[in-house]
Amino acid sequence: MTQTRSGTVEFLQGNEVCAEAAIYAGMRFYAGYPITPSTEIAERLALRLPQVGGTCIQMEDEIGSLCSVIGASLTGMKGMTATSGPGYSLMQEAVGYAIMAEVPLVIVDVQRGGPSTGLPTHASQGDVMQVRWGTHGDHAIVCLSASTHQDLFETMIRAFNVSETFRTPVIVLIDEIVGHMREPVRIPDAGEYELTERLLTNVPRDVDYHPYLPREDGRLPMSHFGGEHRYNVTGLYHDMWGFPSDNPQVTNDLIHHLMNKLENRKRDLTFTKEWNTTDADIMLISYGASARSARHIMEDRRAVGMRMGLIELQTLWPFPGELIRERCRGASYVVVVEMNMGQIVHEVKAAVERPERVFLANRVDGEMITPADIKHLVRVIQGKGI
Amino acid sequence: MPHIWCPGCGHGIVLNSLLRAVEKLQLERNDIVMISGIGCSARIQGYVDFHTMHTLHGRALAFATGIKMAWPLLKVIVPMGDGDALAIGGNHFIHAARRNIDVTAIIMNNSIYGMTGGQHSPLTQCGDHATTAPYGTVDSPFDVVQLASAAGASFIARTTTYHARDMTRLLAAAIEHKGFSVVEVLSQCPTYYGRKNDAGDAVAMMERFRDETVKVTADGAVPGDRSGRMDGAHEPVPVGLFRREERPEYCEAYRTRVMEPALEQAQSAARDVSP
Amino acid sequence: MIQRFLFSGTGGQGVITAAQVFAEAAIFGEGLNAVQTQVYGPEARGGSARSDVIIADSEIWFPKVLEPNVLICLSQFAYDRYSPLVRPGGVAITDPFYVKRWQHATSRAVEIPLHDTIVSLQGGDGGSVHGINICLLGALCRLIPVVSLESLQSAVRRRFPERYLERNLLALEAGTSLAHERITTF
After folding, report:
1. CA A50 to CA B54: how far, in whole Å?
2. Residue C158 to residue A213: CA distance in whole angstroms
3. Taking all residues of chain C, what is their mean pLDDT, rounded to a whole number?
4. Residues A46-83: pLDDT tens digits?
5. Is the ipTM above a cut-off of 0.90?
6. Is A172 buried (19+), middle (13-18) or exposed (0-12) by CB count in 10 A?
7. Which residues contact B201 (CB under 8 A, 6 or more apart)?
8. B184: helix, coil or strand?
9. Domain residue spans in chain A?
10. Alpha carbon of A180: minimum distance to chain B alpha carbons (Å)
């Protein structure tokens, strides 16, 4: 560790960065179950959380992990769990519960190869659609990603801030490469990043409090569960007191509220990084570890005069379709770089004006996609041959 | 008060005894959290004016673990059905018992899945009939007392809806106990279990709770050398208090063995760094 | 400046620790940028071990080493597998105790008797090779001067608890002398 002007530079794994950033963001309750390649998050938090007065528990499975995080979060603590694809599959029923009951929390999914046990120690980005549609029923979801440790630190803080603002679970989707890689990261001093704390109700004790009556801006002022106001929390459709209801009007209002509170605030939820997008003839779109290879080849090709640009998606869901459409208007080709059989590429095709000009540069053999892999595809698209 | 339970259902008696127990202990409503899963029994939390949470099938104890660890001063009560607690939630049940977290688990055992219309549960006796056991079940049931005992619960009791006063006493003792407490309550389901098994109406079923049970002695022993229900349905079912022992409670153990030493370590490290 | 290192050997030799200490020395001692990755999974449990380190004075995007400038092999298996990857003009560093070299037309080869040095440093019973990884770093800082001995010394101090510190600093020192005295180049 060395002191810099502000903060401390450390040489950490991405998983360790997730843990440190979560503590920085005020997370004080972690529950998890060991699974490669995310386990280092639990290991670091088991050591670090009690040092800051927090609680860390190893549960009996991933379902129990997320359920206990929901419980802890309702009492007012910022809570988190971390897992990989197979564990995230198990969590889906509790993800739905957190959406329905509007419980703020963060889930880190460090992706590995799937389906099933797949490739536990290898790179993949196959969970993008699981994050979008894993739990049953209509719902909106927030999913953030990062490719460098510095961005990951910021993304974790952002995830907690978004989850508190909108009372919704936020998934931070990284991958084996980012999770296991070590690179320098500056841990900022306290106060450098603004942290969003829970919006609490100002309804006094013994006055009727409506836990599920949204304000005009869609936000729900909360009373710590177990505190001053007694109310009900349920995964059923519910009225403004939190009691079950199958009244069609109540049902209709609630599903629209759950969707709109996120979809209508898409602009506030869209985080991207862009390089050379204004004059790009070939536009790369990528996220997570793949974006590192994309950045590498983009810089390399720019150096030889090729007009290549890159959009790195730090928000995967809600998908920033309008922004993609806008930026890709002038490009002859759009190349989506991801380590799966094509997941975000379909969203890009749906967003742009000329979907036939959208191509997929992928790799699904467990190895990280290389800059050369992208270069070869671009050459073939351009008719230059391998 | 309108409720979802069928006529003759035993769950209302459990609610009654539970409220009497809470009154007896003079607990503040604001200090009690009731967390339930899914099923007929789980709806009990909708009829009490505590902090209440209706969660996922089988997962109530996992939610309760998070709430209790985050806010250890709360009294946490988890009412569950037999399928909820021991089929889909069986893993959470044994692990909560193993940790000895200070939560009161009430298992309302009516030997059937009522909410979905009468399927056999892991507490249905072998040979009993259910909609998914039209020829009689071939599964053997768990014995909740033995299971909780092996898993490490530090307070274990069994009672029935016939023994409502005992139930109040046992529930009060369970809530007061520091550690994981389990109270199994045999409860009648005349609508599904009763009809499928020619068990008669609610009164007939409750009379059987009276006639076919035997009270354990003060030290938890079963009189007359009966070893419990695993030996067959015709043996009287032992009821009463089976275990009440002092064992380190989970939240307290985490505080004293993990958090306090870690805080101390971090503070002394910070002292070393500062000039 | 960008240098790509591939550290390889057998589980237990500490090559992954060596890679991490090396990267930390570059970052905290030299003010350079470094990225380290390693191979995980069943093959990392007692079998072969591999860790990649890229050191640069600029940003590093692609974190894996496909074609190392510098390959370090402390096992025959690793050498047979990775030596064809070395860049033209690159260096393959091996210990003759573990590795029988073959000819490569485009890369240079350096042999350092790390094993024998550690054994004699520890009294010569041949049982333990603790410190071989740090001894390697001592030699490496003389052969490939991107990280200084001083930077490595502070990285070692940061990394190891008091009771292992002296042993490792001695091993590091021995490594630098080796580079002056007993290296064989081809």
Report:
1. 30
2. 54
3. 91
4. 999 999 999 999 999 999 999 999 999 999 999 999 99
5. yes
6. buried
7. B8, B190, B194
8. strand
9. 2-187, 273-381
10. 26
Instruction: Give the model confidence (pLDDT) of B138-174 as tens digits.
Output: 999 999 999 999 999 999 999 999 999 999 999 999 9
Enumerate long-range contacts of A260-267, CB under 8 Å, 24 or more apart: A260/A218, A261/A140, A261/A166, A261/A168, A261/A214, A261/A218, A261/A219, A262/A140, A262/A141, A262/A142, A262/A166, A262/A168, A262/A318, A263/A140, A263/A318, A264/A218, A265/A166, A265/A218, A266/A318, A266/A320, A266/A322
Between residues 70 and 99 of chain C, which touch chain A (CB distance below 8 Å)?
none
Q: What global pTM score does this model have?
A: 0.96
For the CA atoms of B145, B147, B149, B152, the dihedral, rounded to the nearest 10 degrees, stands at -140
Each residue's pLDDT tens digit, B102-142: 999 999 999 999 999 999 999 999 999 999 999 999 999 99
**Residues C57-84: what's their mean pLDDT?**
96
Residue A279 CB-density burial (10 A; 0-12 exposed, 13-18 middle, 19+ buried): exposed
Count Cα neighbours of B240 within 13 Å in the Cβ-side half-sphere. Answer: 16
Contact flag C63-A371 (C-beta cutoff 8 Å):
no
Where do the domains of chain B lie?
A: 11-248
Angstroms from A352 CA to nearest CA on chain B: 40
**Residues of chain A positioned with their CB less than 8 A from the CB of B39:** none
Residue of A nearest to B75 (CA): A226
User: What's residue B228's pLDDT?
Assistant: 45
Query: Domain A2-187 sits in which CATH superfamily?
Result: Thiamin diphosphate (ThDP)-binding fold, Pyr/PP domains (3.40.50.970)
Touching subunits for chain A (3+ Cβ pairs under 8 A) = B, C
Handedness of CA B213, B218, B223, B226 (dihedral sign): positive
DSSP class of residue B140 equals P
Nearest to A331 by CA among A355, A347, A315, A312: A355
Query: What type of residue is C112?
Result: I
- Fold held by C2-185: Pyruvate-ferredoxin Oxidoreductase; domain 3 (3.40.920)
Q: In what order do the strands lie in the sheet with A358-362?
A: A272-275, A308-313, A282-286, A333-338, A358-362
Judge whether residue B271 has pLDDT over 90: no
Residues from chain C that touch A176, judged by Cβ atoms under 8 A, are 40
Touch criterion met for C and A (3+ Cβ pairs within 8 Å): yes
Q: Is the peptide bond before A318 cis (omega within 30 degrees of 0)?
A: yes
Q: Which amino acid is at B238?
A: P
Indicate the SS3 state at residue B39. Answer: coil
And the tokens for C119?
């054994």
CATH code, B11-248: 3.40.50.970
Comparing CB atoms, the residue among C20, C40, C158 nearest residue A180 is: C40
Which residues of chain A does C36 touch, with a Cβ-Cβ cutoff of 8 Å?
A: 11, 181-183
Strand A282-286 and strand A308-313: the pairing is parallel
In this prediction, residues C69-92 reach a mean pLDDT of 94
Please give the distance of CA A174 from its chain centroid, rounded to a whole number. Answer: 8
Residue A2 in this model has a pLDDT that exceeds 80: no
- Measure in Å the smallest separation between the Cα of A341 and chain B Cα atoms: 33
Q: Looking at the complex, does the CB of residue C63 fall below 8 Å from at least one CB of chain A?
A: yes
How far is CA A338 from each of CA A359, B71, C183, rounded to the nearest angstrom? 11, 42, 45
Best of A12, A147, A183 to mutate (most C CBs within 10 Å, chain C):
A183
- How does DSSP classify residue B130? B
* Amino acid, res. B38: I
DSSP A251-318: HHHHHHHHHHHHHTTHHHH--EEEES-TT-SEEEEE-HHHHHHHHHHHHHHHHTT--EEEEEESEEES
List CB contacts of A197: < 8 A, sequence separation 6 or more: A26, A164
- Percentage of chain C modeled with pLDDT above 70: 94
CATH hierarchy code of domain A273-381: 3.40.50.920
